[in-house]
Amino acid sequence: MNRSSIDLWVGVFVVAGIAGLLFLALKVGNLATFSNSQVYQVQAKFANIGGLKARAPVKSAGVVVGRVADIRFDNESYEAIVSINIDYNYQFPRDTTAKILTSGILGEQYLGLEAGGDGVMLKNGDRLRLTQSAVVLENLISQFLFSKAAEGKPEAKESGK
Amino acid sequence: MQQSPAAQRVVAQPIAHPIVDIRKLSFGYDPKRPVLRNIDLAIERGSVVGIMGQSGCGKTTLLRVIMGALRPSAGEARVLGHAIKELDREGLYAMRRKMGMLFQFGALFTDQSVYENVAFPLREHTDLPEDLINDLVMLKLHAVGLRGAAHLAPTELSGGMARRVALARSIALDPQLILYDEPFTGLDPISFGVIVRLIRELNDSLGATSIIVTHDVQEALRVVDYVHFMAAGRVIAQGRPDEIRSSSEPFVRQFVNGSSEGPVPFHYPAPAYDADLELATH
Amino acid sequence: MRVADVRARLERLGTGVTFHVLRLGFASRFLGHLVLHSGTALRRFRLTTAEIYFAGVLSLIIILVSGLFVGMVLALQGYDTLQRFGASESLGVLVALSLVRELGPVVAGLLFASRAGSAITAEIGLMKATEQLSAMEMMAVDPIARVVAPRFWGGVLSMPLLAALFSAMGIFGGYLVGVQLIGVDAGAFWSQMQAAVDVRNDILNGVIKSAVFGVAVTWIAVFEGYDAPPTAEGVSRATTRTVVTSSLAILALDFVLTALMFTGGTHQ
Q1: Average pLDDT over chain B, rounded to an integer
Q2: Is-contact C95 C209, C-beta < 8 A?
Q3: What are phi and psi of C197, to 5 degrees?
Q4: Is B107 in contact with C140 (Cβ distance < 8 A)?
Q5: Quick one: which of B72, B169, C29, C157 has the most CB atoms within 10 Å?
Q6: Where are the domains of chain B?
Q7: ipTM
Q8: How far away is chain C from the Cα of B26, in angstroms, using its nearest Cα?
Q9: B17-98+175-257: what fold?
């Protein structure tokens, strides 16, 4: 193996390795979609964020428009404060609603934005006033049982026991 | 019955400006078991000197001290004017650039050709252009008679040829001091004669000093100017070849004559013979 | 009698542990010396590229073929389980995440250790046994800078590239089996994969893992070679030790790194 063919093969190897990395980053990962676009940040308060995590997608009409940046707990109002990074290209009105939804039946949770009708748009640092917390399974079940029990009582009264 | 060798009895003639000057040198890997004991030795510039002795007498260790691979536990070793004990890595490397060493089986770099092996010290330590290096490499290879083998790989060489290439490599930078570690081991008679001739020729043409560590008595006595004879870590005799041949020191006599009886016994220490054979002794 | 036995065993255990701790210390100093004297390896980059060739390029075949097969098997096994939950369209996600996060760095690392790591140990060990390293030392050239450092950097630079190629080949293999052979929808395969694999979290972490493994394996390989007893038996034992120690190190480091990187739900 003489010098120049070693150099050639090493060059080929390095190029192939970098190509592999690029393939992984672009075709396999989500580099192409999102990383370096400009974002602006808004905040929303929730009574319960359920399973929402940082970097969870923020979708509107099913399309990803941003990412959850950070989730903190407000010790005074005992609510969760979620910071949202929204892509600069997408403008939302001030009365947009933020809901925590689940993809599929048992999938991961994401933040859904439903645009309102206000003429003024959200700016960096604004707060979304209308929010809907995550659906917690236990609450749902106890609600269901409670309503079933409530239905049962008037029926019992009617059938005259 | 073993005798411990007598301490140095022969008094050497003082040499002015010895190239290697060793005084009261002691060394041991383990301080309780010294390999070298209280050695006094001086080597005159321009001479070919032999350090001889039985296997395990410490001669290879002494060589390693001279080349700076080992630090003296006690005493002093001065080589080419530098005190070994005081040298740091930089100093050691600077000293070694003026020395050449031939290892027992050549120690050629197996991933490089003969040419590249000889060119190695030139490329590493000088900024000479390639055509000048080419001339020097060819010169050195010609001196050892292997200019035609320049493009062979070390694995294609016989033992004798490999050693000659290693010799060419060790003189690439025209050293002042050349060290030989058992250069005659395993050579056929012709290669033997060639190496012997080369040692003397190169030493004289380079104006260098050569130190040969060996136990090939008869051949070495023919080429050296002076001999230091070692046993059990001490120098027990020294002198010119004819003085050594006619020495009355028992160790030296046994060694020079190659006899199996003498101060170095034939039998390794063992219990009584009949005990090992389990003969009934009542 | 029994107490003396136990005591002897404990003493041997203690000596063994001390020996290994001392060895680890020596190995660390060796690494420090190596890194500090890497000037030659980096200035005369030719030396290092030659080593990238021997460690990286010559490992390509085994890495690419293994990657392909691992990806194909992942797709087969994965499909079998996923389709039971009606989630067969997530096959791409399964294959990609398994490879990029774990199998790519780990399996490529294990293969690298056994092919390139053992070769490096054998080479350095043999050079030591035939006194080539001493000869170099005697010619006032630091063998660690000239022989060991280029091999170290060659291995460290090759490893992440090999892991990336392993993962890429594996995903391709998964595509071949999943889409072409089994019939999973190509669009779903790639789009779900893209949605689930995050560049920072998954791919970058995989690259970091492979870099850490590269350092660990190559360090072990050059050290075992340099420290090997200069005999035939010594070198062959050292080679075996390289493969075993590297493999264990990869798996242990993998656990530590995974715990640090992919902790999932502990923080939001």
Answers
A1: 86
A2: no
A3: -95, 120
A4: no
A5: B169
A6: 17-98+175-257, 114-174
A7: 0.82
A8: 22
A9: Rossmann fold (3.40.50)
